[in-house]
Write a structure and sequence with these properties.
Layout: H1 2-19, H2 34-40, H3 60-65, H4 74-80, E1 90-94, E2 106-110, E3 115-119, E4 123-127, E5 130-136, E6 145-151, E7 156-158, E8 164-171, E9 181-186, E10 191-197, E11 210-212, E12 215-220, E13 232-237, E14 242-249, E15 256-260, E16 268-269, E17 274-291, E18 296-315, E19 318-333, E20 340-355, E21 361-371, E22 376-379, E23 388-392, E24 398-402, E25 407-411, E26 417-428, E27 435-450, E28 454-457, H5 467-474, E29 480-485, E30 489-490, E31 494-507, E32 511-520, E33 530-542, E34 545-556, E35 565-576
Parallel strand pairs: 1-7, 8-14, 23-29
Antiparallel strand pairs: 1-4, 2-3, 2-5, 5-6, 8-11, 9-10, 9-12, 12-13, 14-15, 16-17, 17-18, 18-19, 19-20, 20-21, 21-26, 22-25, 23-24, 26-27, 27-30, 27-31, 28-29, 31-32, 32-33, 33-34, 34-35
């Protein structure tokens, strides 16, 4: 009994003490903020909550730079990454600025220099706790950027993107993208990065994104000296930004005639999944010369019109883009609108539909039409009464003489008319630290129609007994123009498989090779197709000296004998640069 009383007394004392106890001033642990909760806890498919403009995991300048990205900000990318973090491991997150499929791959090395992981940007990589080196960027192995990270158990370490993304879209004078080529070099700290290419939107090609160190870069024509003062443009790249650069080249010889940070893609939102863009420009040049001594006036009016329209639809795996282009340059003599002369005339409509079945495979279908609007004439000078036209056929045989007409129509409206369709697949090959490539394959169809076509010639052949020949000989002292007239015709329709392969190989730390191969095999001449190959080897001997070897081979075997080609070209360039700083 005494023991029971003692136990009861002890319990009463403890209860009294507990009743008078106070809570600690601060609770243990770390308080979870609302932003952290919505960033990492709320499911991805829940109603989105705005990410704070200044993320606590990134500096203020990065939030401003991220507005130039095609990809979401760093915090949003991390929140959307659904890869699970393994038990007992940490991770490093490497953000992307654009489509990860078009950015250089990432490579992660341990403290012994051995590769432990590789892949695309825009995701995290689980690693055993320790020290690691993240290698990323464009160029050979030696030129890539290296970021050292310390991985801890259960923590995700983001890499702040202090590099720059650069997308270079190559267009012609009419703002039409094409697969041009250029070279790029950093000039504030001399460092060549090699060769780049534009895109052919009709084949569903996309622009690659250069990941470069901030600085001043020079974009110049292939084969030019590093110190060239012609055929180049420059651009300054700032940390964390994605720069969209337009390079204007002449398509025939790849000469650079301009460039700058101008938006050419359809980016204005028409609806949730639709975007459009439109450029319309033109001008009128009125020129009048008065010859007072001769009491005559010469009046010329130039009319220029350039119109580009782009309509794009993107939703899930579907990508559909349609482009319209109209280029017109018209010269009007005097004020007579019947006297028109067109010096530049192009009307083109192209559309391509792509379904991204897989990240590495995208079937597509395309359609393109091209024609001219303004008819073309050869006119008689108003003051020349002896001017006459000699009409001949395709064999230069005399068919008639016209001494009365003021003009002869060389080409009517909407001729020639070209129609193309095609379907195929864009296959991206597996990327490694030494190799990157893709294959375009499909079936293409091409045909071209023309009617009432003529051209100015210089030959006349006729039967000596032809009475018209005597008329030509009698007028031999006059100004005659030979007009060669063609019958209405359409080219032989050609359809068959076509394929193209683009590959980049990196040998060691200083050498790269770019290869391009194209084959078109119409069924009508499947055993003798058209073939094109080009390879460029760039070997950086030392910091300021680069050796470049180029090989190009073109084989064209159409039925028309005048269009056949079988040509190979070799070119060796030893380029160096020195600038005192």
């Amino acid at each position: 009994m005494p023991s029971v009383l003692r136990a009861s007394a002890c319990m009463l004392v403890m209860l009294a003490a507990r009743a008078q106890a106070k809570l600690p001033t601060e609770l243990p642990g770390e308080e979870i903020t609302e932003e952290q909760y919505f960033d990492y806890v709320v499911p991805r498919d829940s109603i989105a909550k705005q990410i704070p403009e200044e993320s606590p995991s990134s500096p203020t300048w990065l939030d401003s730079a991220a507005q130039t990205w095609d990809a979401p900000p760093l915090a949003v990318q991390m929140a959307r990454d659904e890869e699970k973090l393994q038990m007992g491991m940490g991770a490093v997150f490497v953000p992307c600025m654009s489509d990860p499929d078009h950015e250089p791959d990432v490579e992660i090395l341990d403290d012994k220099g051995e590769a432990v992981a590789a892949g695309k940007t825009g995701r995290k990589y689980s690693l055993v706790p320790g020290s690691y080196y993240v290698m990323l960027g464009s160029g050979p192995h030696k030129q890539r950027m290296v970021k050292k990270v310390e991985i801890s158990d259960g923590k995700i370490v983001p890499i702040v993107p202090d590099w720059t993304g650069l997308r270079i879209d190559v267009v012609d004078e009419s703002n039409q993208p094409f697969r041009g080529e250029y070279e790029i070099t950093r000039i504030d700290e001399f460092e060549p990065y090699g060769r780049g290419y534009g895109r052919d939107p009709d084949l569903g090609q996309k622009l690659a994104t250069w990941l470069l160190k901030p600085g001043v870069y020079k974009i110049f024509g292939v084969g030019q000296s590093y110190n060239t003062l012609t055929n180049f443009v420059t651009v300054r790249l700032l940390p964390g930004e994605l720069v969209r650069f337009v390079l204007v080249q002449q398509e025939d010889d790849m000469t650079i005639i301009g460039g700058g940070m101008v938006e050419t893609e359809a980016r204005t939102g028409l609806a949730s999944n639709w975007k459009y863009g439109m450029d319309i420009g033109g001008g009128i040049d009125f020129n009048s010369q008065i010859y007072h001594n001769e009491d005559s006036t010469d009046t010329k009016t130039g009319l220029d019109l350039l119109a580009n329209a782009r309509l794009k639809f993107e939703r899930n795996k579907v990508d559909w883009e349609t482009r319209f282009r109209l280029v017109q340059t018209i010269l009007l003599q005097g004020l007579d609108f019947r006297d028109l002369e067109s010096t530049d005339d192009d009307l083109r409509l192209s559309s391509i539909y792509t379904w991204r079945l897989l990240r590495w495979l995208g079937p597509y279908g395309r359609l393109e039409t091209e024609t001219e609007i303004v008819p073309d004439y050869k006119r008689r000078p108003e003051t020349d009464s002896t001017y006459f036209f000699v009409l001949v056929d395709e064999d230069d045989t005399l068919t008639g003489i016209d001494s009365t007409s003021e003009s002869i129509k060389l080409e009517p409206s909407f001729t020639p008319f070209t129609f193309e369709v095609g379907a195929g697949a864009n296959i991206r090959l597996p990327r490694t630290r030494f190799f990157e490539g893709k294959i375009l394959g499909g079936i293409g169809f091409r045909q071209r129609w023309s009617w009432d076509q003529s051209e100015v010639g210089d030959s006349v052949y006729a039967d000596p007994g032809d009475p018209d020949l005597a008329v030509v000989q009698a007028k031999s002292t006059s100004d005659k123009v030979v007009i060669r007239q063609y019958e209405d015709a359409s080219t032989q329709p050609e359809y068959g498989p076509e394929t193209a392969m683009y590959a980049t190989l990196r040998f060691g730390q200083f050498a790269t090779t770019d290869t391009e191969i194209k084959v078109f095999a119409p069924f009508t001449r499947f055993t003798y197709p058209d073939f094109y190959a080009r390879a460029t080897l760039s070997w950086r001997l030392i910091r300021s000296i680069t050796l470049v070897y180029e090989y190009e081979y073109e084989l064209s075997q159409p039925e028309e004998e005048t269009l056949k080609e079988n040509l190979s070209t070799h070119r060796v360039l030893l380029r160096f640069s020195y600038t005192s700083r």
